[in-house]
């Protein structure tokens, strides 16, 4: 259970209606199989000890007595399993029959959770046999102590205190106020559902939406196990639809009528971190965290173990894997950027925008966004002043792309060579041009910013910033150079997404000449072009050779800021997601670089210009990231020692 992960399985065992011995045998097999796969928490379906469709047989003491002995037998046969198990059993208390989820661990019965919302409509007649959950109580099951019996029970793991498990049963999830709402407010981070939801046309997709949506709404893990086709087909068929979800994401699913098993890892640490940052989670009056009921809490222990990761970890968390979803994401981002800029231009009564164009990805995206904003406002594109400022490292390829694209888009193009001005500056400050140090590089960046700022004054316009989110995270910007603008349209866009935004425009613009330029921009190495070109005229200075692959840094950025992951967990996730592309020493090396740069460069982010937030990770000091500029990275780097 390292790094806050616990492996969870939802299983559908083979059952025969009313054949308790057969059912218990196969429930034990299902539990063992899940544990063999590494699961530490196993959920079996509703009433699986007897079968859900026993109907009036539930009035027969023979069946109920067999079910009671069947539960004890299941407990005995699973006593060697190091897992928390949930199984569905009918149980009598004070002359009433309840449809229960029973929690067990290492052969000990921990709690009974009866169904709260017992359906009695359409094909369901459960109230004919079962009583809804009432007040909590204690029941004697022949153990040293009686165990809790009631809808409001929490099971807390002693080895992972943030793993708090609660249960609901089938229809409970369909109710307007599911028990899982109170469970989550009381502290449950994982909800299990023992179900016997039958199969009808369209129900599987609706059921999936319920499970995934509830996990998102409650910021929790959710494991759903459903009865399979061994149930009676008198009037209903059951499909064994199992799911494991986490905070709005479906991690694993067995297709209806499929093999009957869904298994994945729930990231409990991420759930707790997300709840911690949400000031609206768990608020309100109540006995515990806003819950309206007093909860019985039971502690169980699973011991320490290393949970193997099998869940999919997206190597590019800012870029959807599906082409259709990626196109939709690109349109959303471009719309946010363009409308944000349009609002600022409208507010300032400004019909002019000035930006430096280099032929690189970021300035290309900024130009495309500015064009969209002008079109939204019905402004003449000639009000866009695209300034190309060749210097010591500018290549013909990038210069040509910058000028040709500006013309193709109908912007006003200006070219100002900065070499003479920078050389004069070198002379003024006594810098040797042959020394290609940070002064050599930053003098060019600041000269370019001075030029476009002054042109903006001439034109009564706004300087549009081009720097992206990844550069801001790493501090890869010249302070008071390209770091500064009047509105930074790319400030919320990570580098890995910038590329797809430009490609999306190229694919959809409907202009072959414009598309050809954009495709060539995409094929050009990322570079600030501040050092002289190679002898063959190609780019000598490539950013990713200096600061590391943006693919890695964007992955780090997402998991550090969005997920609040520890350094060791970030490293583990990166190795799992990107291990085929990078070896472990490379990942570790660049992760250390990320932490050092992220902490040391906060002073640049503390005075960022305005810019639109486009995703769940943002660095604006006025919005998402309030971080002292003098914070030290020692704690984070120390955790990476010895890896």
Question: Can I get a quick summary?
Answer:
The chain is built from 20 helices and 20 strands. It is of the alpha/beta class and 643 residues long. 38% of the residues lie in helices and 17% in strands.
Counted up, domains total 2
Oligomer: single chain
Instruction: State the CATH superfamily name of the largest domain.
Output: HUPs
Main sheet: strand order? 13-12-11-10-9-8-15
Report the strand count. Answer: 20
Strand content: 15-25%
Provide the CATH top-level class of the largest domain.
Answer: Alpha Beta
Could you explain the architecture of this structure?
The chain is an alpha/beta fold. It folds into two domains: 299 residues, Nitrilase/N-carbamoyl-D-aminoacid amidohydrolase; 317 residues, HUPs (Rossmann fold, 3-Layer(aba) Sandwich), CATH 3.40.50. It is built from 20 helices and 20 strands. A seven-stranded mixed sheet has the order 13-12-11-10-9-8-15. It has a six-stranded mixed sheet with strand order 5-4-3-2-1-14. Strands 18-17-16-19-20 form a five-stranded parallel sheet. Helix 7 packs across helix 8 and helix 13 packs antiparallel against helix 14. It is elongated. The protein starts with a strand and ends with a helix. The model has no long low-confidence stretch (mean pLDDT 94).
